């Protein structure tokens, strides 16, 4: 793949991934087949900042975990009122990283 296209993709989507993964993502996208490039460009990633805001507002209901695709954890938070509010508060610090990890999994699924 052309480095210029990859760099544009990385500039537009860097906030959706952990910073220590960016170099490996870039290298993998450069080596990517042109046939898969269209699929990668159409991926919709979850915004970590939005996940944090939802976690602060409605974290006790598990909506933040449902948003990123952690259905089991979302049900657990919903049934326990956010782990009696402890789990909800802990998620304020963890939800952005979890969102970025889910985005990486989605990208890896599309690439491989």
Automatic annotation (TrEMBL):
Subcellular localization, as worded in the UniProt entry: Membrane
Keywords, in A-Z order: Membrane, Transmembrane, Transmembrane helix
Membrane topology: Multi-pass membrane protein
Domain TM2 intervals: 45-93
Main localization category: membrane
GO cellular component, one term: membrane
Pfam families (alphabetical): TM2
Stated name of the protein: TM2 domain-containing protein
Lineage: Bacteria, Pseudomonadati, Bacteroidota, Cytophagia, Cytophagales
